[in-house]
Amino acid sequence: MEEVRLMKGNEAIAHAAIRYGCDGYFGYPITPQSEVLETLAELKPWETTGMVVLQAESELAAINMVLGGAATGKAVMTSSSSPGVSLKQEGISYLAASELPALIVNVMRGGPGLGTIQPSQGDYFQATKGGGHGDYHLIVLSPATVQEMTDFVGLGFDLAFKYRTPAMILADGVVGQMMEKVVLPEQRPRRTDEEVRRQCPWAACGRGGRDHRNVVTSLELDSAKMEVNNHRFQETYRRIEENEVRYQEYFTDDAEYLIVAFGSVARICLKAIEDARAAGIKIGLLRPITLWPFPSRRIAELAPRMRGILTVELNAGQMVEDVRLAAPGVDVFHFGRMGGMVPNPVEVLDALKQHFTELQ
Question: Nearest to residue 24, comparing CAs of 34, 11, 8, 37?
């Protein structure tokens, strides 16, 4: 029988982490995602599953605890919001270069700087282009519902371990704070040390009868060997781009105009599209679920049939650059809000009419 609960997106992250069999969470409070740590503290999984939950002294400490736990093959995670994730970028780059699986949750707030505590999607560049130094990518999942906040914990961990690379859940503050019904997954047992050793033969968890030591590091002083490492990383990213693109489409079969939006904004746009179609305007929606890898190929397939494309984002215009690259020759415009002002469906329709004069 399904277990249905009413909870916030942040709370759902905590419940899903425990039920996945997560070994450790290391974080630091920051609005609007503090309920992740607060819920874990309330649930006390260390008494039920043995999961470690630790409030670190800083974001820097938290991400380096994740690095240490991931190096042993454990399923470990952290969560934060925009300025906190900025502080974690060096550690995230280390994770990527060390080929370590980990889950990072960013419930975005407005910036730059400390900005505001209101919702935003201003970290798209940071998440999808590699916020730290070096040539690396994160797998980036964008939830639009509290149910997806739940589901993407398991998916994020599974993809991270499949490709030995960090994965990120990039949620805006709306999804983190709103409450919806959620179907919780069944409890999975945490892996035993023997299972970790068998599933992660690269892990630094003792020799265990091996005739060699596993060394986990992001450092390579020999430039030729570092070149080999980087080619291996890029091959992994090519495989991810080939196999892990995820998106949803609505009303694209006969659409003359296309909206591209992610996260909570996609839900607002869907309502705008329903209103537009009631008025005889044929608009479709493509919602990227993976922001990286981005559904460029599908947008390129749809673009020639469109009279124009509008991206709607809670930022100054970030994803719009990837849409323009995927749809050369098509008019692509951006409509957005910054600093926590969430657009409504009427504003989305007004933006469409402003950019595409034939709709006026």
Answer: 37
Token pair listed for 30: 């920051």
Q: What are the residue ranges of CATH 3.40.50.920 in the chain?
A: 248-359
CA dist., res. 341 & res. 308, Å (int) = 25
Q: Which of 299, 287, 347, 288 is nearest to 325 (CA)?
A: 299
Q: Which fold has domain 3-194?
A: Rossmann fold (3.40.50)
Whether a cis peptide bond, with omega within 30° of 0, leads into 185 is no
Read off the pTM. Answer: 0.96
Whole-number percent of the chain with pLDDT over 90: 90
Task: State the average pLDDT over residues 244-266.
Answer: 97
Range list for CATH 3.40.50.970 in the chain: 3-194
For helices 146-163 and 9-20, angle between their N-to-C axes, nearest 10 degrees: 40
At 140-195, the pLDDT tens digits run 999 999 999 999 999 999 999 999 999 999 999 999 999 999 999 999 999 999 99
Strands laid side by side in the 283-288 sheet: 247-250, 283-288, 257-260, 308-313, 332-336
> Which of left, alpha, beta for 77 (phi over 0: left; psi -120 to 50: alpha)?
beta
pLDDT, one tens digit per residue, over 281-336 is 999 999 999 999 999 999 999 999 999 999 999 999 999 999 999 999 999 999 99
DSSP reduced 3-state for 249: strand
CATH no., domain 248-359? 3.40.50.920
